[in-house]
Amino acid sequence: MKATPLILTAFRTPEALADLYLADWDLLLRQARRGGLLSSLHALLAERGLLDKVPEQPRRHLDWSHAVFERHALAVQWEVTQIRRALEQTGIPVILLKGAAYVMSGLPTARGRIFSDIDILVPKETVNQVEAALMMQGWATTHHDAYDQHYYRTWMHELPPMQHVRRMTVLDVHHAILPETAAIHPDSAKLIKAATKLTQPGDLAVLAPADMVLHAACHLFHEGELDNGLRDLLDIDSLLRHFGATPSFWHDLTGRAAELELTRPLFYALRYAARLLQTPLPQATTAGLAGPNAALLALMDMLYTRALLPDHPSCSDHLSAIARQLLYLRANWLRMPPVLLARHLFHKAFLSPDKLRESDFEKMRANEAEGRTISRKFRK
Amino acid sequence: MNVAALPLAELECRLNQNGLWLRTGPFVSRIQTTIRSVAADISLLYADYPLEDFGAEAHAFADFHIQIAQPTNLRRWFKPQAMFLFDGASPFKPLPLDQAFPLLEWGLNWCVSAHANDLLIIHAAVIEKNGFAAILPAPPGSGKSTLCAALVQRGWRLLTDELALVRLTDGRLIPLPRPVSLKNQSIDILRDYAPAAVFSRPVSDTLKGTVAHMQPPCNSVARAQEAASAAWVIFPKYQADATTRLEPVSQSRTFMRIADNSFNYSLLGTRGFDTLTKLVGSCLCYDFTYSNLDEAVALFNSLPTDNIPK
Fold first, then answer.
1. Is the pLDDT of residue A369 over 80?
2. Contact B188, B18 (CB under 8 A)
3. Which chain A positions have a beta carbon within 8 Å of B268's beta carbon?
4. Are B117 and A63 a contacting pair at CB < 8 A?
5. Which DSSP letter does residue A115 get?
6. Which of A345-354, A361-370, B121-130, B297-306 has the lowest mean pLDDT?
7. Residue A120 contacts residue A95 (beta carbons within 8 Å)
8. Predicted confidence band at A201 (pLDDT cuts at 50, 70, 90)?
9. Could you tell me the residue ranges of all domains in chain B?
10. Using CA atoms, how far apart are residues A114 and B113, in angstroms rounded to an integer?
11. Where is B95: in which H helix or E strand?
């Protein structure tokens, strides 16, 4: 492996950035932009009072991203208000997940964080009612292909993404945190029961602290969404530092992981947060979590320490591309039983290839626009 | 040192290797390409532009890292393409190889309009004379670039033909002089109007029809660090056989029309609103219809400056 990438140095010890030459700043900004982390870097430096030490040229890029973040934060608040209004008549408990949850519960994790979709969790038996209520207020389903509809509604843990016809914002309605077809099934009823009500606005809730961490871990280390890997690992780091200040948290976390069958994703989350971001962890917590056997662990280390970095040449070596591909395969393997997976991949490869390419292109654009997509979506 | 100081072979060599570190207005772009037609057009149209000299490698900094590359797929053998890469990532679809230079120009515009949020960015040309700048916002096809090209060939300073940059802190207009993009009939009209002007080879069948770029006046490039104050907002409209006509437009209407033509007005929130309010408040605003370039330029030259609001 190469020396520690600048982007990791920046988030571990931001004070060290005072010594950077302009050429280092140039590279750091490029790594941060690729990882969707420019505005997070701005937030971190602002919090530590270090912004004024940043040379003028890189400072301008950080300020540019901060403007995007400010707009994004406003847009998220507005969007959440609209979702609450659309669903309040139904009386169904709505839980915000991930980015929107961090913003609405005022967690430090939300600072500088830009994301493209809003995710909510509702009880499975209410999904149709929720979908109907959202449709009445202008959200429409996005995947019109019969196969895609079947894929989501039969096998997945969420409805096909819904897009608002005027604001063009995207909303994912989940009834579980893992697909129906996965081998493990964290019980959504338990998550909903333990959820924390928000004081503002009204009847919305977020997952309890331990569940919030477990969901983030599950997303990154079970579902394998590595497009914004480092950003998502930073979420975990920030949640652990924040909630970890409460002594009972660590005990709750491991107990809850066992209860929800999420010990393994938690093991990886703690391991790589500590390795890449030096997240402080109590000895008792790490010692009490069972990991995979030594050979598998060595392989996982080799894969994750590469795939969690921004996909930029300066953060990559000759194994980075294959690491990403293998983890993508692993995520699909965990998502569905082999026969179903084969059937799904066959369909995507031969029966709807054009759509797949189109969606890949869109995804790439969305990543490259560095969160700007949501701002554009929110413009109208 | 300017681009003109580099022999073409040396320019190509830089573009192939570490890149050309080119300053345009408030931005430094590092451009890399192995496509020779792009090198030739850069040498022609960017001759007067300064190259950044950082002294040591450790001090090198570029705002935008850009590459115009050829995709290495099978298609390169029968239908070669050029793609725009922003630090290795591709925000747009590739275009035919013939359009490589216009693609660089569009890509450079995108770099600015998608990032530079310390400025209110308006889709407009800006020209200046005697310290008074005119903003010409307009949708494509209104003859904005044609009028702008004609004015800068008759002594007006070019600040931009595409992206008006309004500084949020003081409302001043920041120059971003770059080659002026001309389309279809405008290319021949300008060639007749200014026989001494330098143009790139016209490229046909682009999304915008046939496109050629005109070299900006040397003096405008040299004054690229000199901000200007807006005095007029003029919405140009080319209309065949129309008489030259200047009609006042209310400031409120002007505000809405500029907001509609801005890339980041809504992203900037209240700062965008305040900046645009101040900008429009300090300008005289007009609709301008023209068909004859000589008459249009004469009218611009005779615009009074004693009635500009402060």
1. no
2. no
3. 67, 71
4. yes
5. -
6. A361-370
7. yes
8. low
9. 3-113, 119-301
10. 19
11. strand B95-96
Name which of B27, B57, B174, B267 to mutate to probe chain A: the one with the most chain A Cβ atoms within 10 A of its Cβ: B267
Least confident of A107-111, A224-228, A314-318: A224-228
Q: At residue A361, does pLDDT exceed 70?
A: no
Span A86-97, pLDDT tens digits: 998 899 989 999
pLDDT in tens, A102-131: 999 999 999 999 998 999 999 999 999 999
Instruction: Break chain A into its structural domains and give their ranges.
Output: 6-379
Residues of B in contact with A114 (CB under 8 A): none
The 3-state secondary structure of B201-270, one letter per residue: CCEEEECCEEEEEECCCHHHHHCCCCCEEEEEEEEEEECCCCCCEEEECCHHHHHHHHHHCECCCCCCCH
Q: Is the distance from CB of A113 to CB of A66 less than 8 angstroms?
A: no
B100-115 pLDDT per residue, tens:
999 999 999 999 999 9
Q: Do B61 and A23 touch (CB under 8 A)?
A: yes
Task: Tell if the CB–CB gap between B88 and A22 is shorter than 8 Å.
Answer: no
A6-379 CATH choice from 3.40.309.10, 1.10.10.60, 3.30.460.40, 2.40.110.10: 3.30.460.40
Mean pLDDT, residues A325-353: 76
Residue among A22, A64, A367 whose CB faces B61 most closely: A22
How far does B124 lie from chain A, in Å, by closest CA?
A: 20
Pick among B27, B30, B73, B87 to test the A interface (most A CBs inside 10 A): B87
